[in-house]
Amino acid sequence: MAQLTIQQRIIIRVPMAKKGRAPARIAPEEQQAWEEKKGPRCVALRSIRGASIVVGNGVDLILADNHRYRARLEKGCDSDGFYSGFYVEPDDDGSLCSGRDELQARSGLSCGIDSFRRLIPIDEED
């Protein structure tokens, strides 16, 4: 008698949004001003198309519909470790949720998501 166990592990890689070959951290003169609003508890993984690092304690997620959400990292985590993208292990519901999921950098750094903030562009002409 023999027993065979098959395990499946899925990991999703989220690339950093880059203009040309520029680094993932956006230069201060190229930054657009964003206002943070209350965000959702979860974001659908299938809608995430890329990410960028604009602040020291968060990673901005760029969605398929061009909306942006800032994943605020748990206290003590620095977003610089995610400069080359990150991985997430999806839950059964297919969502990335604050208070539950972690972003995993290629370097081995792992940070939990404290909250999501919806980003609204600030019109600088006002």
Task: Give an overview in words.
- It is a single chain.
- By secondary structure, the protein is mainly β.
- The protein has one domain (12-16, 34-121).
- 0% of the residues lie in helices and 40% in strands.
- It has no helices and ten strands.
- The strands form two sheets. Strands 1, 2, 4, 5, 6, 7, 9 and 10 form an eight-stranded antiparallel β-sheet that branches. A two-stranded antiparallel sheet has the order 3-8.
- The protein is elongated and about 70 Å long.
How would you describe this structure in keywords?
single chain, 126 residues, mainly beta, eight-stranded antiparallel β-sheet, two-stranded antiparallel sheet, 40% strand
Describe the structure concisely for a colleague:
It is built from no helices and 10 strands. The chain has 126 residues and is mostly beta strands. The strands form 2 sheets. Strands 1, 2, 4, 5, 6, 7, 9 and 10 form an 8-stranded antiparallel sheet that branches. It has a two-stranded antiparallel ribbon with strand order 3-8.
Give a topology summary.
Layout: E1 12-14, E2 34-38, E3 42-44, E4 48-52, E5 58-63, E6 68-73, E7 86-88, E8 95-97, E9 102-105, E10 110-121
Antiparallel strand pairs: 1-7, 2-10, 3-8, 4-5, 5-6, 6-10, 7-9, 9-10
Please give the alpha-carbon distance between the first and last residues: 76 Å
Helicity range:
under 10%
Q: How many helices does DSSP assign?
A: 0
Largest sheet: 8 strands, antiparallel
Mean pLDDT equals: 82
Radius of gyration over C-alpha positions, nearest whole angstrom: 16 Å
The portion of residues forming beta strands comes to 35-45%
Strand tally is 10
